[in-house]
Amino acid sequence: MDEIYEDLTSSFEQIYTALRRDLSRVRTGRASASILDGVKVDYYGSPTEISQVAAIQIPEARMITIKPWEANLLKDVERAIINASLGLAPSSDGTIIRISVPPLTEERRRDLAKQVTQIGEQAKVSARNHRRDANTMLKEMQKDGDLSEDELQRGLKVVQGHTDAAMGAIDSIIEKKQEEIAEV
Fold it and tell me: Same fold for the domain at 2-25+105-182 and the one at 33-100?
């Protein structure tokens, strides 16, 4: 049973990590290098993340600078950012790309809050699936005669307790991101 609890806890930690990663890609009013995660540039015929071909810096709260390591990549990086449909307008001076992150409108904030809620719901569904799997394993153990009925009930309560804690942690992560979006 301890192994089932450890697997469940480990699964929940992976869910938190994935949720934080997914939420870091949601644009807030602040500049962040993670906004560009997933944007790929054509680098000698293979799609490559911008962070692999350029230095990304945040010199100001609403500014991102990108300096490609090879000068001939400047236009490709600029084109990749535009094609990513992030709502960002890159401008180049020939050696460096500057992206000014515009402040969010109220409507855009509401849309982003809905997006964050959807991402959170996906994490909760994943957590519920892990709970179901753990409960199934416990019931199989009881069916095989490895657990008594009382031990099964205690095990199901422990799994539910872990799941409730995970749901609370997920809600906390979502709330924090929504507060970040609401900041003006």
Answer: no
Largest CA distance in the chain: 72
Q: pLDDT, tens digit, for every residue of 24-36?
A: 877 676 777 888 8
- CATH class for domain 2-25+105-182? mainly alpha
- State the amino acid at position 160 in one-letter form: Q
Domain ranges of the chain: 2-25+105-182, 33-100
**122-138 pLDDT, tens per residue?**
999 999 999 999 999 99
CATH of domain 33-100: 3.30.1360.40
Helix, strand and coil content of the chain, in percent to the nearest 5, comes to: 65, 15, 20
Q: Which amino acid is at 87?
A: G
C-alpha distance from residue 47 to each of 52, 55, 70, 85, 105 (Å):
10, 17, 16, 17, 32
